[in-house]
Write a structure and sequence with these properties.
The chain has 296 residues and is mainly beta. It has two domains: 160 residues, Immunoglobulin-like, CATH 2.60.40; 122 residues, Copper amine oxidase-like, N-terminal domain (Copper Amine Oxidase, Chain A, domain 1). The protein is built from two helices and 25 strands. The protein is globular. The N terminus is likely disordered.
Length: 296
């Protein structure tokens, strides 16, 4: 089966096609040391050579061993002058994939991917999801990603790269809800289980740096030789040394409220520090001892 690459949509009138999929893989441990993905998952959209008399099928490909994938959220845009929500067929979706259409003005289409066995394959190292657009259209179908989130079983984010784009991961909006002493967290309303619960130290809220950082699009790595955590996004590189109450932010030393520590194989840092460097807002609820970390 041959596939042809799609150029980005340039029309200012575009609807969002929202694909929300949940893959039930067995939970796995992701300790801090050395388990950050070396190679990002690669994502591509393409028109498959499956043009029928009155339809065209698009494929969404995830390459580069996305086996750690446990959940995700993709948004694509297409030109409503060519297709609308009523043109999208659920009949061509693989077994285990559910479709829910919202045919209001927003034109949102949600697809829940609930069965990895029936989700389709493209080679040994990739996943494929097919969507069929109905109707005879002379113009080519064009799609492009506007948002990507790929989540591991522990709630941390897999790095990704959209083919044809330079950025390996972008700034992601969203909301994390944490509670002191609880390993259960909410990521954009979906429940995930942490390796270790947030806690208070010297009056400061300590949160898992990999979990929070990767959720908002940062790359988080463990440097075994120097006992450091490296956080990198599009603007900065941060180095945190365990049990040291300071950090290097783009080479400039900054003091922390308290030092980073390791608990149950997970590195924790002060909430105020990680939220500030990632450009997120925080809300503290004293009654429930819970925290919301939000970035718009």
């Amino acid at each position: 089966m041959q596939a042809k690459k799609i150029k980005g949509v340039r029309s200012s009138r575009m609807l969002r096609l929202i694909l929300a999929f949940v893959l039930f893989f067995p939970a796995a441990a992701f300790p801090e040391a050395g388990n950050c993905a070396e190679n990002p998952v690669e994502i591509e959209t393409a028109v498959l050579e499956e043009r029928g008399h009155n339809s065209v099928t698009a494929g969404i490909f995830l390459y580069n061993n996305p086996g750690d994938l446990a959940a995700g959220h993709l948004e694509l845009a297409y030109d409503p002058a060519l297709f609308n929500a009523k043109d999208v067929s659920a009949e061509e979706l693989p077994e285990g994939v559910l479709l829910e259409s919202n045919l209001k003005e927003a034109g949102v289409i949600k697809i829940a991917w609930v069965d990895p066995v029936g989700a389709g394959k493209k080679g040994a190292d990739g996943l494929l999801l097919k969507i069929t657009f109905l109707g005879e259209k002379e113009q080519p179908l064009t799609l492009h990603f506007t948002k990507v989130e790929l989540i591991r079983a522990d709630g941390s984010f897999l790095p990704f790269r959209v083919k044809g784009e330079e950025s390996a991961s972008g700034d992601l909006a969203g909301k994390i809800h944490l509670q002191i002493g609880s390993a259960e967290a909410l990521v954009n309303g979906s429940q995930v289980t942490l390796n270790a619960a947030p806690f208070l130290k010297e009056g400061r809220t300590m949160v898992p740096v990999r979990f929070v950082g990767e959720h908002f699009g940062a790359k988080v790595s463990w440097l075994q030789e120097t006992n450091q955590v490296r956080i990198e996004d599009n603007r900065q590189v941060i180095l945190l040394t365990i049990n040291t109450p300071s950090a290097l932010v783009n080479g400039v030393e900054e003091e922390l409220d308290c030092a980073a520590v390791i608990v149950k194989g997970t590195t924790f840092v002060p909430l105020r520090f990680i939220s500030a460097i990632l450009g997120a807002d925080t809300l503290w609820d004293e009654a429930s001892r819970s925290i919301d970390i939000i970035r718009f």
